Amino acid sequence: MKKTLMRKYARLAVQSGVNLQKGQGCIINASVEQHEFAEMVAEEAYRAGAKWVTVEWGDQALNRLKYRHETITQLSRVEEWEKTRMQFYADTLPARISIASGAPDGMKGINPAKMQKSRMSRGTAMKPLQDAMANKYQWTILAVPSKAWAKKVFPQERTSAAVEKLWNAILQTVHVTEDNDPVAAWEAHDRELEAKAQVLTDLDLDYLHYESPNGTDFKVWLIPGSKWIGGGEALADGTYFNPNMPTEEVFNTPWRGKCEGKLVSTKPLSVQGTLVEKFAITFQDGKAVSVEADQGQEQLERLITMGEGACMLGEVAMVPVSSPISQSGILFYNTLFDENAACHVALGRGFRENIPGYRDMTDEQLREKGVNDALIHVDFMIGSPDLNVTGYTRDGKEVAVIRNGNWAI
Ligand code: ZN
After folding, report:
1. How much distance in Å is there from the Cα of 49 to the middle of ligand 1?
2. What is the CATH number of the domain that holds 142?
């Protein structure tokens, strides 16, 4: 990929992604394979006035070795220095830029029980600090291709051609082209999504009914007074940032424990580096009670038992099949992209920011309101060209929200 375009993308991550503030620290999560792009992001962060930049390097191959050779007890440990580092982040609130690039099935063959148990213990140990930081700092997730990921998306191509093709596809979804101003493009895009979200909020929906010939027949209730969100988010001081690049969704946090029926997936899902394909989840009294998957059944079963709240929903999101990512026809095997090509829901943790006044509420109060809490938040895709979603307002009116996969409002 051309260096000038990569540089433009790196600058976009710092400006529209996290909107880094002068004097703020900046953490970059990146795979060692992406050192060139990570370096560009670091340089752009310094240019924007970062006080310091730290890259937390990762490597899927080393990760595999770790899971293969270390015991569950060892993998579950959180060392004192890790907590100290996290505490430092909670105290100083640096911006975080995560560069996703791993192969969607890069952890295939690793014992799922080992991964689930150790991730649960580590997640539980770190959760209080993470909760303390939530909604107080800017973060963004964006992606650059790795060789393995590109080959998964374009298996017919030679590796270098596959990487180039995936680069092009990614840059298109995040509005980076040779001669445009991507920051301005993001501002316009955010305003459009915000307007759509407002239309849904104004409907004051009580519940949604999803129906598709593929077997999806599902009802989910919404928290009274909750608002739909699209585009970026703002901190208490108004600093506006975009947590996901790309984004095409308008989302809400559903009422904890209030949904019924069956959801059939329409795209494969990468769960902790293993692919789960052709699956369905059935809910009763708000909880996932059974799952069926052609591939990855065990991963899916383990996912919904990742502690309390993992079997309940934390997100409902609308994305029309007319979305540019959906129109590209590319299956990315990466949720950051695939969730922005189809209506989706997420298992696990809900969003506080959908509840007006959330900044003055405790986690306990938010939970009482009906926001789900969990160690996980995993989106899965249920949108298709034959999905219909009907909304029912609190005063009993029926509203077509999605018809044949596209917006009806
Ligand atoms: Zn989403």
Report:
1. 31
2. 3.40.1830.10
Q: Residue 177: what pLDDT?
A: 95
* 201 and 114 within one domain: no
Comparing C-alpha atoms, which of 60, 64, 67 is closest to residue 118? Answer: 67
Alpha helices in 139-250 (DSSP H): 147-153, 159-173, 182-203
Q: Ligand 1 center to residue 119 CA distance, Å?
A: 22
pTM, two decimals, is 0.93
Please check whether residues 401 and 328 belong to one and the same domain: yes
Shared domain for 329 and 370, answered yes or no, is yes
Q: What is the pLDDT of residue 376?
A: 93
Is there a contact between 53 and 26 (Cβ–Cβ < 8 Å)? yes
Kindly give the distance from the C-alpha atom of residue 316 to the centroid of ligand 1, in angstroms, as a whole number: 7
Please check whether residues 148 and 14 belong to one and the same domain: yes
Distance from Cα 85 to the centre of ligand 1, integer Å: 29
Same domain, 395 and 255: yes
Report the separation in Å between the CA atom of 323 and the middle of ligand 1, taken as the mean of its atom positions.
14
pLDDT block averages, 10 residues each, the chain of length 409: 97 98 98 97 98 97 95 95 95 97 91 90 93 94 97 97 97 95 97 97 98 98 98 96 97 98 95 91 97 94 93 97 92 93 96 96 95 95 97 96 96
The domain of 42 spans 3-173
Compute, in angstroms, the gap from residue 157 CA to the centroid of ligand 1.
Answer: 30
Which residues does 105 contact at the CB level (< 8 Å), separation at least 6?
152, 270, 273, 274, 275, 333
Residue the block writes with tokens 């909880």? 287
Domain count, the chain: 2
69 alpha carbon – ligand 1 mean position (Å): 35
CA of 251 to the centre of ligand 1 (A): 6
Sequence letter at residue 363? D
Q: Is residue 15 part of a domain?
A: yes
162 and 225 inside one domain: no
CA of 5 to the centre of ligand 1 (A): 27
| Predicted local confidence at residue 200, as pLDDT | 97
CA 339–ligand 1 middle distance (angstroms): 6
**Could you tell me how many helices (H) and strands (E) the chain has, helices first?**
13, 20
Do residues 288 and 386 both lie within one domain?
yes
What is the structure's pLDDT at 272? Answer: 82
Predicted local confidence at residue 113, as pLDDT: 87
